[in-house]
Amino acid sequence: MNDNNNYTDVLLEDINSKMDAVFEVVQDTRDQIKTLARQSDLESLQSNVQLIRTALTDTTAQINKQDQRITKLELKHSSN
Q1: Radius of gyration of the chain (CA)
Q2: Running DSSP on this structure, what letter comes out for residue 62?
Q3: How far apart are CA 25 and CA 19, in angstroms?
Q4: What is the C-alpha to C-alpha distance for residues 3 and 50, in angstroms, rounded to an integer?
Q5: Cα separations (Å) of 38 from 34, 44, 72, 74, 78?
Q6: Which phi and psi (to 5°) does residue 60 adopt?
Q7: CA 66/CA 64 separation, integer angstroms
Q8: Distance from C-alpha of 55 to C-alpha of 25, rounded to nearest angstrom
């Protein structure tokens, strides 16, 4: 009976060490997935910032053109 218990203990130790290895791999995988998700979020954010910059540049150019037109109209109106 004692030999049987020793054998079972050895098997359980082996299984426990293998389970620990599996848990470690699972934890590492979860950490990698979190990192990839953060990278994806960052790439999406960078893309959105680029779109905002483009829109802002276009809007600024339109405002500058409107300012020039208004200035020309004001000069034309004041000389009349």
Answers
A1: 34
A2: H
A3: 10
A4: 71
A5: 6, 10, 51, 53, 58
A6: -65, -40
A7: 5
A8: 45
Confidence check: pLDDT of 1 > 60 = no
Backbone CA torsion sign across 14, 15, 20, 24: positive
Q: Tokens at residue 2, please?
A: 């004692």
The two tokens of residue 23 are 């848990």
pLDDT digits over 19-75, tens only? 999 999 999 999 999 999 999 999 999 999 999 999 999 999 999 999 999 999 988
Output the six-digit token pair for 5: 């218990």
- pTM for the full predicted model: 0.55
Gap between the Cα atoms of 43 and 64, Å rounded = 32
30: which 2 tokens? Answer: 């979860």
User: Which has the closest alpha carbon to 42: 69, 10, 34, 6?
Assistant: 34
Predicted pLDDT at 47: 94
Enter the tokens of residue 73: 């109209």
